[in-house]
Automatic annotation (TrEMBL):
Positions of the R3H domain: 535-599
Organism from which the protein derives: Leptothoe kymatousa TAU-MAC 1615
Name of the protein: AAA family ATPase
Keyword Repressor assigned: no
Alphabetized UniProt keyword annotations: ATP-binding, Nucleotide-binding
Amino acid sequence: MVRSDDYQAVPPSTSSNVSEKNSSGYDDLEQLLSILPAQLSQPLSNHPQRHQLIEVILDLGRCPEARFPGKADYLSDQVISKADLEHCIERVGAFGGDNRAGIEKTLHRISAMRNRAGDIIGLTCRVGRAVFGTVEMIRDLVESGKSILLLGRPGVGKTTALREMARVLADDLDKRVVIIDTSNEIAGDGDIPHPAIGRARRMQVAKPEFQHQVMIEAVENHTPEVIIIDEIGTELEALAARTIAERGVQLVGTAHGNQLENLIKNPTLADLVGGIQTVTLGDDEARRRGSQKSVLERKAPPTFDMAIEMLERQRWVVHEDVSTTVDHLLRRRLPETQIRTVGENGKVLITHELPEVPSQRRTTARRPAKRGWREAGHMKPVQTAAPLAGTLTGPTSLTSAPAATDDFQALLDQQLDTSDLELSTPVGPNGEDLVPIYPYGISREQLHHVIDTLKLPVSVTKELSVAEAVLALRSHVRNHSKLKTIAKSRQLPIYTVKSNTIPQITRALQRLLDIDPRDQAEAIDLSLFTRQGADDELEALEEARLAVEQIVIPKGQPVELLPRSAKIRKMQHELAEHYRLKSLSFGDEPNRRLRIFPA
């Protein structure tokens, strides 16, 4: 299911002026060409696609190469010599511990490749451009004040987006912005930052391994409202980011990985999305979830409130609630995705795509089974836009359990195998698909007991978004308008019971599944009314059954049963209710007994 909206991408007042400069001088391409030998810079100056140049590759003993979108051209038939490399190295800044250098007051990045002796044998001269207007795709998210994490493959434009977000936050929103510029890639090389970051301030990092220290220093010394970090890649940096977020500072950063699943599987960066731990569920909770006892759960709130997967330069996937997305992924459910693209007319198109339940599941769930399960068309498909998982249920208490690293990784790979998300449908005792129902106010112990005893093709879910029917206590529904509103919007039928008794729950499930109670009149499973299986309980229930079937119903006479304990009398009451007969207890303990009356 898809719902969409769009709006005009109107750049801020300063963007239009700056974007004009971008086409002529804001890429500073001439300064990059000036560091190259003359036999290389001349072909590039006259190249018809010079303004689309991505990078220049200079490898010792190979022909120089210029890379453009979708293709690469050789600049010369002569191979690169050490003199050519030295010519370039002398005209750029010093190479740091990350083997990166720059050109002062530009955004270009020069990366070095070294041999085992430490000598430079290759250069990657990447063109840095101040591209304006990209932030308009997510301007509403930037202005929300929430922390944002950008993900994407190299070269998709993460650093470019960070640079403009810094300018918008500092100039348009008047916030105190500090950029942690590890490789001088965001604000350019040199002591004076590039004008593309606006009024934002830049803190340089002496060595990449000190980035986490500079992050903490920025918070403690310079009172920022926003901190921008590029390439969070170590556990210390992830921990520093969490510390900053807990101090109330808005974070905008990038991390290695294409999607959130990559971060969940990365133990170094998993803390950015809340961290992952193995927990052991109790028997009832595991049965209620329909899962194994050892599952994965999120340990803490995520460091970043929102995450953006940059699939392409103008096609981004937005996760407005990282915690909800991670929880869905850990429970092997596909989350709702919001996709933002820019059309040819300059409008930003926002599309909400809901995970669709496989057609096979929807079709077979409505196919009548051998025992007369519900007919096709009785349950209507979900037709709403937003998942309401957990709306009516509270948090579940879980007990943490340690796990070995190998076991944890195996469980993580199993739970995050997106190839069969929502595709594995449990089946009933006769091979039919289970009908997911959402119980509200119903005793789960009684409900599971009825389902297990009668072997009904029903599964219990706590997610209203995947349920096909609601089973609720009548008094709860009467006083809960929100449940009725949600069920009506999702076109979910609500089946109610008067009380939390086995006969009431049994008849409600029979109505839900279109089972005729007369089809089951040949024999009553007495284990439906007992959980202990003790001989005295079965004897008492058999006594009540014979009294009903041989005296009360055929002869229309009341019957008194033998004195029993309160627990057994309750079972006898439920058995009489199953026959829709009235029963009363009378007498004093220990001789208190049950009397069953005809209808």
